[in-house]
Amino acid sequence: MTATVASDLLEETAPAKINLTLRVLGKRADGYHELESLVTFTSLGDRLTLRPGPALDLAVSGPTAAQAGPLGDNLVLKAARLLAERVPGLALGAFDLVKRLPAGGGLGGGSSDAAAALRLLARLNGLPLDDPRLAEAALKTGADVPVCLAGRPRIMRGVGERLAPPVALPPLFALLVGPGFPLATRDVFTALGLAPGDRRGEATADDAVPADPDGFWEYLAESRNDLEPPAIGLAPAVGDLLATLRRQRGCRLARMSGSGSTCFALFDEPRAAADAALTLGSRHPGWWVQATALAR
């Protein structure tokens, strides 16, 4: 996720976010759900460029651009405006976003785009990434934007505002499958059925993720995504997809990411993930199917 410069053009990758685990610890009195999630990122994602100029602008193109929604609601513009409110005289410019990730699939594409925009503006304006104004703008933009800002594997908590130190993961290779329909995050949380004040558990320690590979796989197997059951209740096809992924040769674990509907299968070897992608992609041409490495 390093920015590059060609002439005055700055560029960033906005990688897909994967929730390897997702626990819903409760629902706060203000209606927000309190989460704990081990998050990592992929080697694929959207591409965002910034050409410095006097006015803030955005153009969107790419294979999944039609899913991105109205331009005025795009999180890239929202993040830029929120940072401009906090940094007097912030230099802006024209963004160009190439969308490759499916929208509404639990991969945090919009949040990662927004985080990439903040990194580009920080670079353009000489702001360090630990500038608290960047963190404030990220959280105001959306709950997943803070964890996407640095793009390192780590546990996020609360509504996304509490980030544990980065963790080292073993080599992981994933097959990502979007079944072609979105799931609305609000609907999935509503189906979970928590009332304000309800508690389902307590947070774990920052060092809960084992450093050794065997311990890590055991940790993953004992973890879960609490939003899977309500998502499957809303869209039984998610359960069918998970069953299909678990049947792939070499699959160590299959789970839904975020609030869905994208699901992932984890493999020890990149060839196994690539073979599964080839198999499922040919059998299901309407699915979004990608093999990728995960950030360590």
TrEMBL record:
> Which Pfam families does the record cross-reference, listed alphabetically?
GHMP_kinases_C, GHMP_kinases_N
Q: Where does the record place a coiled coil?
A: none
Instruction: Summarize where ATP binds, as residue positions.
Output: P102, A103, G104, G105, G106, L107, G108, G109, G110, S111, S112
Instruction: Give one GO term, molecular function aspect.
Output: 4-(cytidine 5'-diphospho)-2-C-methyl-D-erythritol kinase activity
Q: What is its EC number?
A: 2.7.1.148
Q: Where does the record place the catalytic residues? A: K17, D144
Q: What is the superkingdom listed in this entry's lineage?
A: Bacteria
- Which parts of the sequence belong to the GHMP kinase C-terminal domain? 222-279
Tell me which UniProt keywords the record has, alphabetically. ATP-binding, Isoprene biosynthesis, Kinase, Nucleotide-binding, Transferase
Its job:
Catalyzes the phosphorylation of the position 2 hydroxy group of 4-diphosphocytidyl-2C-methyl-D-erythritol.
Give the protein family.
Answer: Belongs to the GHMP kinase family. IspE subfamily.
In its UniProt entry, what is this protein called?
Answer: 4-diphosphocytidyl-2-C-methyl-D-erythritol kinase
